[in-house]
Amino acid sequence: MAAPLKLYVKTWCPWCITARQFLQKLGYRFEEIDVEADRNAYAEMIRLSGQSYTPTLTVDGKLLADFGPDELGDFLKKNQIEPR
Question: What is the mean pLDDT of each run of 10 residues along the chain (84 residues)?
């Protein structure tokens, strides 16, 4: 089974809300990780991305950090990541 999509978010972040809605609308299943509620997850996100900005998406060793909807769509298409 393929690795799950992990979406690191801050719940108040408008880009995070948009990313969540975008993924849901297209039928992607993902784990949403609130980095403000979980300091270890926040540290993990920073370790992975090298920054503290959200949203950050990881899947199958690929990473997209601090992005908007256009960048998310391009990332999914470029990396041939289909809804699962």
Answer: 83 95 95 97 96 95 92 94 86
* Cα 72 to Cα 66: distance, rounded to the nearest angstrom: 10
* Structure token digits, residue 24: 């849901």
Residue 66 DSSP label: S
- With b for 16 or more beta-carbon neighbours within 10 A and e for fewer, the 16-47 pattern comes to beebbebbeeeebebeebebeeeeebbebbbe
Whether this model's pTM surpasses 0.90? yes
Residue with tokens 């975008």: 22
Contacts of 59 (CB under 8 A, 6+ apart): 3, 4, 5, 6, 79, 81
